[in-house]
Write a structure and sequence with these properties.
With about 300 residues, the protein is of the alpha/beta class. The chain is built from nine helices and nine strands.
Length: about 300
């Protein structure tokens, strides 16, 4: 007798910077979520779609749940919490290096009302000694009744296959929601903006990361050389930040452009002409109309 096809939605939640996006990119096999060593990198729900002959798992990589400090932060936490109501299972991911923290208790308190299986995923096990894991597992087990506790390394791929098998067991029989070659439900425009933002996060320090947004102004085919023209604005909150992002004699912006163009060309499968500029929009993270304009539409959540 042939096994029935399984499908379902799995939310990935956790404190900022525990490796949610790294896991997503590992499983999907290509970059759809941006990675950075800065906290709160992910700002929107990123849906990654994994499909094989037996199953389709739609992963929702939520923004890290944290105590918000501005309207953008409120929006990010609201997205993450709402995702818990829409899914078949929840992966609560923690960083093995950091262990149990107040931020985890903040999330566990919110999980108390959830009626879906919750799996504790201890990520980054490649960075700790195995002896450190047992007391950590015991501590989390005492805090919440997890369906299962699974240690992994998303970066190295350790135990990720086992995790996928466990998730599959808990998924209902269901349809294939997306074509088998589709890996995300986000339009290319969104992914391109995220790839550009990732490069700014990688290259800048201090106050820059959280005060930037990227708006794609135009994507079109150039007639003269068949390259795709991508024009994008990097939004910052202060003039001093604009200077940092542009860099001395434009070097920083040029480096952002070179790195982003390489990823965008892989995404589009075509040569790209990338034009970037920097705009100042003071205090945009606290202005609802600008949050909407930059793609953070609170009315949808």
């Amino acid at each position: 007798m042939q096994n029935q096809f399984k499908s379902g939605f799995v939310a990935i939640i956790g404190r900022p910077n525990v490796g949610k996006s790294t896991f997503m990119n590992r499983v999907i096999g290509q970059k759809i979520a941006i990675m950075s060593d800065k906290a709160q990198t992910t700002r929107n729900k990123i849906q990654g779609v994994y499909t094989d002959q037996q199953k389709q798992i739609i992963f929702i990589d939520t923004p890290g749940i944290h105590k918000p400090k501005h309207k953008l932060g409120d929006f990010m936490v609201k997205i993450a919490e709402n995702a818990l109501d829409e899914v078949d299972a929840i992966m609560f991911m923690i960083n093995a290096e950091e262990g149990y923290g107040r931020g985890d208790q903040f999330i566990i308190d919110r999980l108390q009302s959830v009626r879906k299986p919750v799996f504790l995923i201890i990520n980054k096990i490649d960075l700790v000694h195995p002896d450190q894991l047992l007391p950590m597992i015991e501590q989390y087990r005492n805090a919440y009744s997890f369906e299962e506790i699974i240690p992994i390394s998303a970066l190295e791929g350790n135990n990720v296959g086992h995790l996928m098998d466990v998730l599959t067991e808990h998924l209902p029989e269901g349809p294939q929601y997306y074509p088998e070659d589709q890996v995300t439900d986000h339009p290319e425009r969104f992914i391109i903006s995220e790839l550009i933002r990732e490069k700014v996060l990688q290259l800048t320090r201090e106050e820059i990361p959280h005060s930037i947004a990227v708006v794609i102004e135009q994507i079109q085919q150039r007639e003269d050389d068949e390259k795709i023209l991508v024009q994008a604005a990097i939004i910052v909150e202060r003039k001093s930040q604009k200077g940092i992002v542009i860099g001395k004699q434009g070097r920083m912006l040029k480096e952002v452009g070179q790195r982003a163009r390489a990823d965008i060309e892989k995404l589009l499968g075509s040569k790209v002409y990338l034009e970037l500029w920097v705009k100042v929009q003071e205090n945009w993270r606290n202005r609802p109309h600008q949050l909407r304009e930059f793609g953070f539409n609170q009315d949808e959540y």
